[in-house]
Structures are given as structure tokens and as C-alpha cells.
Amino acid sequence: MEVIRHSPLNPIWLKASVIGSLWASVEIVAGSFLHNLQIPFSGTILTLFAIFLLSAFTRLWNEGGLIWRAGIICALMKSISPSAIIIGPMVGIITESLLFELMLMLLGRNMVGMIVGGGITAISAIIHKFFTLLILYGFDFVRILDSLYHYAAKQLKIPNAQPMDLIWILAGVYFSFGVFASLSGFWVGTNFKKREGSGEVGHAFKIRNDNVLLGIQERQSYSTLLILVHLVSMTGVLWLLNLSDYLAAGVIALIYTSFCIYRYPGSLRRLRKVSVWLQFLFIVFSSVLVLDLFAGETSNGESGWVIGSVMVFRAFLLIIGFAAISVELKNPLVKTVLYKQGLADLYQSLRLAFGVLPDLLTSLSRSKLSILNPSSLLSHLLSNARNLIELFQEEQKKQPPIFILTGDVGSGENNIFDDGGRPDQAAGLLSWRIHRCW
What we know:
Layout: E1 2-4, H1 11-36, H2 42-60, H3 66-77, H4 87-107, H5 111-137, H6 140-155, H7 163-195, H8 224-242, H9 246-263, H10 274-294, H11 304-328, H12 332-340, H13 344-366, H14 374-397, E2 402-404, H15 423-430
Helix pairs in contact: 1-2, 1-3, 1-13, 1-14, 2-4, 2-5, 2-7, 3-4, 3-13, 4-5, 5-7, 6-10, 7-14, 8-9, 8-11, 9-11, 10-11, 12-13
């Protein structure tokens, strides 16, 4: 018999669990609020609040490597979506945390590092949005934007204006917003440190152990082979589209998307949003307007109507395909590989963060605080951080050892008694909570 004693988490991972869980709770509650109301620039607002939060927590716990760990935990916690892991926001959150951490590492964990880190992180929001649209619609999307810009410049009688001028202006605006968010977080964090220990009490949380880590659903079957099938299918259809073989691309895409919709009903979730279809209509309309009417441009003799329709077709395919891949990424085998490849700290951190998430969501939903009052909301989160770190430390002490019974094939359970063991000892051993040993 082998006994594996529980190894306590590194303190930096405990703190990352706290920040990641608080960050994720805001992303989930505020993100749902902003997107359901169809508020423009919802992603930008969430990015600015993330900068606000990270700057404040850097003042509270100024440790190297803390921010990127918190970002990974927060991103993975976005996977609680019942249909699929939300890949786009997850990539955005990880990028934000890495850039902020990088600036702190290069410029110092001080106000200068936080200011530049906030500005660069804010710019990443528009870069992430651009590349998301580029992946969905292809390089024809860039052609449409370029033609629209030149047409607008001509109408405004500034023919010498170049697209890069607008990009630099936009980057400067976002950088300024990021700097303001970072300075605000620095100020809130500094004030909180001054009054820390003044008797301010946060919410009392408890850890639920019945949560399903990484959103694994018992009724959902998984297959690692299907991940390859999805990638090959999408790549094949995109290749045929580039060859303008629309008939073959359409037939394969019809079979593939039908399979995805049947196996993963949640893959249609994003397509149920009115904003997505409005975006599709805008793409087709802009393509016809710019490529046919304004510029008179064609690609291989194709009209703007055809090019716009192909762009929407491509986006529809990728939305369905990435949603399907997202479900397969919840495969328990992925968790197994992560745990065995030296990422046990990450897995344990996620278990703690997921365990307290239901209470966090309830606390935020019932409180009168909102993202419209960021200073009060952030002070509330900082107060809760102290309670969470104490709760996580206590939870670590409760973890029991794992017993692994070994023996020859076919030796059976009765070998427990081979060395003179008593039945009551065996009963005591088997009464331990059963753990899955990956």
C-alpha cells in the first residue's frame, strides 16, 4: 500500500486562487449584465476593470508571478459556461495578466510598472478584438475596413490620412484609459492598506466540494480523437473556400455543422444572440457597399455580395467548430495530463477557487455594489480577499492522505488481511473518502 501525503499549496498559488476567483466572479456577473443589455464596448469595460483590480491587488500582495497565475485561474473559471469553454474571453484574460505581469517585471513592481502595464493591457483589448474578427472573417475583413477608411477620409476631405494614423490615435486613447484605471486601482489599494485591520469585515464564505471542476458534465461523452476531427474539418473547409470551391465547402460544412449541432446542442448558444446576426448583416452590407458601389473592387471576378456571404459562412463555421472543440477540452483526460505534468498546484488552486465561486456569485448578485461604482466594488473585493485566504489555508489543512492499494493482477481485495490485518482496520481504511487517482 502506498500513502500519498497532501502537499500544501505554495502561498503564491493560494493568493492567486483568491484573486482569480474574485476576478472571475466579476467577469461572470458584470459580463452577463453588460452583454445582456447589449452595452457597446463591454469587453473594453471589463478589461479596464481587470486593470483596476490587478493594480489594487498588486498593492496588497506585491509578489512576482502572482498576476499571471491569477489570470490563468480566472480564465479557466470562465469554463463554467454550461455549453462550452469560452475560448475568446479566456485568451483575452490570460493575455491581460501576462502583459501586466511582464510590465511589472521589466519596469519594477511600482507605480511606473503599473501605469505602463495598465496602458499596454488596455491596448491589448483592441488587438484581441481585431484578431478575433480577422480569424472569423478572414483577410477580406481587412480589405473592407481599409476601403471604408479611405472612403470616409475622402468624404471628410483628408485624402492624405493613412489607416496607421487612426490606429495610433485609437491606441493612444486606450492607453490613456488603461493608465487611468491603473492609477485608480493603485489609489484604492493604497487606501485599503492604510485602513487594513481597522475592523472592516468581509463576507463569510464556505467551500462547496460538490462543484464540478472545469465544468465536466456526467452526461457528456468525450473523445480526444474528435478534437483532431474538428480541426481537420474546419481546416479543410477553409482551404476549399480559399480555392473558391464553394460547392464542396458547402457540402462538407453542412455535414460537419449538422454533426456538431447534434452532438453539442450548446454550440448554437452564441448564434442565438441578436448582436451576432446584426454583425453578419453589417459584414454583408459593408462588403456590397464598399467593394461594389464605392470602390468597384472585385476578387477573382466575384461581387461584394459573394465575398460578404463567404465571410459570414466562414464565421458561422468557426463559431460552431470552436464551440464543439471547447466542449471536448473539458475531457477529464485533459485534467489528468495537466496534473501529471507538474501542474498539481494549478489543479488544487482551481479546486479551491471553484469551491468558493457559488458563494462569491451569490454575494455579488445580492449586494448593491455594481461595476457602475467600481471603487466601492473593489474595496468590497479586497475585504473579502482576507477572508478567502484564511478559508483556503484552513481548507488545505483538512485534506486527507490518499491510499493506493497495490498488488498482483487478480490478487483481490482479501489481500488486505494477508499480513495479519484485522477486519476493523480494513473497514477503517475503506471508510476514507474515495479519491480518483489520475
